[in-house]
Write a structure and sequence with these properties.
The complex is a heterodimer of chains A (282) and B (172). By secondary structure, chain A is of the alpha+beta class. Chain A has a domain at 131-282: Thrombin, subunit H. Chain A has helices at residues 2-17, 27-42, 46-66, 68-120, and strands at 126-137, 146-149, 162-165, 168-176, 181-185, 192-198, 202-208, 214-217, 230-233, 245-249, 259-262, 271-279. The longest helix of chain A has 53 residues, at 68-120. Chain A is elongated and about 80 Å long. Chain B has seven helices and no strands. The longest helix of chain B is centred in the C-terminal third of the chain and has 30 residues, at 138-167. With 172 residues, chain B is mostly helical. In chain B, α2 runs parallel beside α4 (62-76), α4 (62-76) runs antiparallel to α5 and α6 (106-131) crosses α7 (138-167). Classes of the chains: A alpha+beta (282), B mainly alpha (172). At the A-B interface, α1, α2, α3 and α4 of A face α2, α4, α5, α6 and α7 of B.
């Protein structure tokens, strides 16, 4: 028994301390260094910030190059898949287009009317400035749902800016480097956005699930939420302006979770708009 | 003479295969997300590091493993140092197994790998959740562990073959 315990201790000690053949560092020294880095990250020490900025600049660019073959396969796969469904899709889209065109005339009138009414009640209007960015890395990590874009502080990107795919909200900027930024997608578990669900004007919070959809949380009017209801930003908190479309309610509200299916497909992002909303001054 | 020199350069390049694969895998991550397979993911660097640290410890330097962990954190958006710690702990497990093994067996390596990734992922889950207060999806990690475990035996077969061809089965 004693001998078995001794063997275990010797093997553990040897695994940690013995500098093995062709190895320049001992494992224990490197593990110790890693703990220092983790603690420095936790307490936001300056040297770690510099290390991170350097690593980001190197890693994002290299990753873009290294991912090129996989991206090529991915694009070829998507193109082939789309090719087979193009006829049916074309028919469906033509019908939809006719329907949407008729709706468009109505919405133009409503927009003008809305603008006039807002100015009557002194509601703040927003000025927007937008930057177009290209998605460099869109790794679907099991831990975080985020993408890296090729716009950074040198292009005027700031923390918290809204990121949109066409006219749909997809996330916000959570990390800014000199030439790149990280966008936390709405599907990430850590993403929480105040939303308005139309019709019925229900205020709620949209949270990510870590999967491909979001869930509606913290609402007292769960039973009023209808299937296919559209989810917009509510503008609460002042980060985003109100009325940006996000997605629609996908599941029957009688189920335990109210799931939101996003309008934008986060796995197919190529170019995005990074937008800041500033209150219009008189 | 020139032919021999070219061949020897090519062989040297192939000997660096594990290093190249490690760098490519942390920068790229083979995720197959375009296939839209729900939850499917596996941690290729874990398999690579465990196998090569166990079978041919000199082919992947600990310093390089540490650095690749930092790069992985930057790419995936995890707090910096977390992946380095995970990779180094995988090395500890493989080093321990190498020290206690007299007669190597693929099955024993495989099951020990399962234990190693369970412990390491649990530790990382705790650090990221408790220290950095980042929410992680529990089921995704569990499925990631399962697929990483299942794929180990396939990749270890491929690496065995690679090792035989490139290094001629010689031990370090």
């Amino acid at each position: 028994m004693q001998a078995g315990r001794d063997d275990f201790v010797i093997a553990i000690r040897s695994a940690f301390l013995k500098k093995e053949n062709k190895q320049k560092f001992s494992l224990l020294a490197l593990i110790f260094l890693t703990f220092i880095i983790i603690l420095s990250e936790k307490f936001n020490l300056k040297p770690i910030d510099y290390l991170k900025i350097f690593l980001r600049e190197v890693a994002y660019r290299s990753s873009f190059i290294v991912s090129a073959p996989e991206n090529f396969i991915k694009e070829a796969y998507v193109a082939t898949k789309n090719h087979f469904s193009v006829y049916e899709e074309n028919k469906e889209l033509k019908e939809k287009l006719n329907f949407e065109l008729s709706k468009n005339y109505n919405s133009e009138y409503i927009l003008e009317e809305n603008k006039r009414l807002r100015s009557t009640i002194d509601e703040t209007t927003f000025l927007t400035s937008e930057i177009i960015g290209k998605v460099l890395i869109d790794k679907k990590s099991p831990f975080l749902r985020s993408v890296i874009i090729n716009r950074g502080s040198k292009d005027g990107v700031e923390l918290g800016m809204a990121v949109m795919d066409k006219s749909y909200l997809i996330g916000k900027v959570v990390e800014v480097s000199f030439t790149t930024s990280r966008v936390l997608l709405l599907s990430d578990l850590n993403s929480k956005v105040p939303v308005d669900i139309m019709p019925n004007d229900i205020q709620s919070i949209l949270s990510g699930t870590g999967g491909d959809e979001g869930v509606i949380q913290y609402t007292r009017q769960q039973e009023l939420i209808e299937k296919d209801a559209v989810v917009f930003t509510s503008g609460a908190g002042g980060l985003f302006k109100s009325g940006i479309p996000i997605g629609k309610i996908a599941m029957d509200p009688s189920n335990l979770k109210t799931v939101v299916s996003f309008f934008s497909d986060f796995s197919q992002l190529r170019y995005v708009k990074i937008i800041s909303f500033k209150k219009e001054t008189e | 003479m020139g032919e021999i020199s070219k061949f020897s350069n090519f062989k040297k390049f192939l000997e660096k295969g594990p290093i190249i694969l490690l760098i490519v895998s942390v920068l790229n991550e083979f995720d197959f997300n375009y296939l839209n397979l729900k939850y499917f993911s596996f941690n290729f660097p874990f398999i690579l590091i465990y196998y090569w640290s166990l079978k041919r410890s000199g082919s992947l330097g600990y310093g390089l493993i540490f650095l690749s962990g930092l790069l992985n954190d930057v790419v995936t958006g995890l707090p910096i140092g977390v992946s380095s710690l995970a990779y180094l702990l995988i090395c500890v497990f493989s080093s321990y197994l190498r020290n206690i093994t007299l007669r190597p067996s693929a099955m024993k390596d495989w099951f020990f790998f399962g234990l190693a990734i369970l412990v390491v992922n649990s530790l990382i889950y705790l650090i990221v959740g408790l220290v950095f207060e980042v929410e992680l999806e529990y089921y995704s990690i569990l499925v990631n562990i399962l697929f990483t475990f299942l794929f180990y035996i396939i990749f270890s077969g491929l690496f065995d073959y690679y090792q035989k061809v490139i290094f001629g089965g010689q031990n370090v």
